[in-house]
Design brief:
511 residues, alpha/beta, 7-stranded mixed sheet, 17 helices, single chain
Length: 511
């Protein structure tokens, strides 16, 4: 790590209607270092880095790159100065291939570049940085985790010297996260600067050289050596109070009555290939069934089958003993199936609509929010404000545009809307992805509370620790098949990890 500053931001202010995101923020990073940026959801981390990446212009303050003052009017200006950012919500063209997305906007492309040549170059880049993804595949066929790899590759392809990553491991398994951490160290070793926004404190301590902490839009700790900070101290700086970093183990003995049953379910993915193969599972009343597995092994298709977004080619889905195999999402929601999808803005919320519209997307046509064809706008505003208060979505108003919320606030809004329906089944896909420590604990408590009230929870997460600690039973999904089901209290991380990697021998059933 060099002592030379790569960048410096001084006195940065930024406000949006009803929200002050950054207040007099000073931030600096050096060449050849991994610099972690921590803070609660809504603390202003992404806004600050979006200013550095040229997406927003600051209301006050100055930015210097390599000692030279700069003013960015658009992301292309930041890219021209070697600054690239990978956001939580991806900016890819779904209809185009990975290689085509890498090519878009790339300067200096030869006029006669062939597809085969660029696919080969893209494959070499992915192998160099251990970010494996097939360049010839269209983006719409990729999992969220694979799309994130494309975003990282796109930033590297443009020769960024300052690489900003916003929660880059949120959708990765522990093994994939370790690989990415090695990649970040490799990038820094090449003399570039890596700025890592993350809520995973142990992960930050394992890879970062220094850390800056934001709280309420202001800096509370700037550029501290990470080796001098414990996980508990970092958590305390983030939230301003003592906070346990341990997740509670919550295993209980569920009821004997099954609520959701899948029998021999087979389903195809978006490419027409088999994604689920003869999947059978049961979730009892008042039970959390965790699904463990590496991204791309059928988790997305499983969630979509249960919520009616994807029709199985074979098999049967039953809810409280009734066949619901062919029901669409709306009738299933009416029967009490709630869905927290992995893609918050793509599937769960509409970014350009105000919070009021998103809060009532599934209940706008029912009393007391509506009477016949007439909406009661006052009740809708009160209902939305109640959700904001109950679920701790601070700094937002019912008329705030949803896209202005931070990633953690979006997740809280999504959970608030679904849980307000008093669901019988909750399908939660990566429910704590991108959340800070306090928000993660809060979301987990909401799921446990729902379970204790008799709700059945299908928890799909690539955070193995979360799956093991919250689930009453753990089922492992590998290449579209359930290869084992283990009681949560007896689940062993090493064994589950081997099953996730395919080294499971034959399928096991010990729960």
């Amino acid at each position: 790590m060099s002592d030379t500053l790569a960048l410096e931001m001084v006195g940065i202010d930024k406000a949006f209607p009803g929200v002050v995101a950054n207040r007099d923020v000073d931030f600096s990073a050096r060449w050849g270092e991994v610099h972690a940026l921590l803070g609660e959801n809504g603390a202003g981390k992404t806004t600050l880095m979006s200013i550095l990446a040229g997406l927003y212009r600051p209301d006050a303050g100055q930015i210097t790159i390599d000692g030279q003052p700069v003013v960015f009017h658009a992301p292309k200006d930041a890219i021209a100065h070697g600054v690239g950012m990978v956001y939580q919500h991806y900016r890819l063209v779904p209809s185009q291939t990975v290689a085509e997305n890498l090519l878009l906007g790339l300067a200096g492309v030869p006029f006669r570049l062939t597809a085969g040549t660029f696919i080969r170059q893209a494959r070499e880049l992915s192998q160099r940085y251990r970010l494996q993804v097939e360049p010839s595949r269209p983006v719409w066929q990729l999992s969220v985790g694979e799309q994130q790899r494309v975003e990282i590759l796109k930033t590297l392809q443009r020769g960024a010297r300052i690489v900003i990553l916003d929660e880059p491991t949120a959708v990765l398994t522990p093994q994939e996260s370790e690989d990415l951490m090695r990649t970040l160290r490799q990038i820094a070793a090449e003399g570039r600067t890596v700025i890592l926004i993350s809520h995973k404190l142990e992960e930050v301590r394992s890879v970062a050289d220094r850390v800056t902490v934001l709280r309420g839009g202001a800096v509370v700790a700037g550029g501290l050596p990470i080796g001098s900070m414990s996980t508990r101290e970092l958590a305390h700086l983030m939230v301003g109070e003592a906070l346990s970093t341990e997740r509670p183990v919550t295993h209980t003995q569920p009821a004997s009555e099954n609520r959701l049953v899948l029998e021999g379910v087979t389903a195809l993915d978006n490419r027409g290939l088999t994604a689920l193969k003869n999947v059978s599972l049961q979730i009892a009343v008042g039970e959390i069934l965790g699904i463990a597995g590496v991204a791309g092994n059928g988790q997305r298709e499983l969630a979509q089958v249960v919520t009616g977004l994807r029709q199985p080619t074979h098999g049967r889905v039953s809810l409280d003993g009734r066949d619901v195999t062919r029901l669409a999402p709306r009738p299933l929601a009416r029967r009490g199936v709630a869905h927290v999808p992995e893609d918050r803005l793509g599937e769960g919320l509409v970014g350009n609509l105000p919070l009021t519209d998103n809060a009532v997307l599934k209940s706008y046509d029912r009393p007391p929010l509506a009477w016949g064809p007439l909406l009661d706008l006052r009740r809708i505003v009160r209902f939305t404000q109640d959700l904001l208060d109950r679920f701790g979505i601070r700094g937002a108003r019912p008329d705030t545009a949803t896209r202005l919320l931070s990633g953690g606030q979006l997740q809280r809004l999504l959970l608030a809307r679904e849980m307000a329906l008093d669901p019988r089944v909750i399908v939660a896909v990566h429910p704590t992805r991108g959340l800070d420590v306090a928000a993660t604990q809060q979301v987990q408590e909401w799921l446990v509370d729902a379970r204790e009230k008799g709700t059945s929870v299908l928890l799909i997460s690539e955070d193995l620790d979360e799956v093991l600690q919250l689930s009453d039973r753990v089922a492992v999904l590998y290449e579209g098949q359930i290869v084992g089901t283990v009681a949560g209290a007896d689940a062993d991380r090493g064994t589950i990890g081997l099953m996730m990697a395919g080294s499971h021998g034959q399928a096991v059933e010990v729960a």
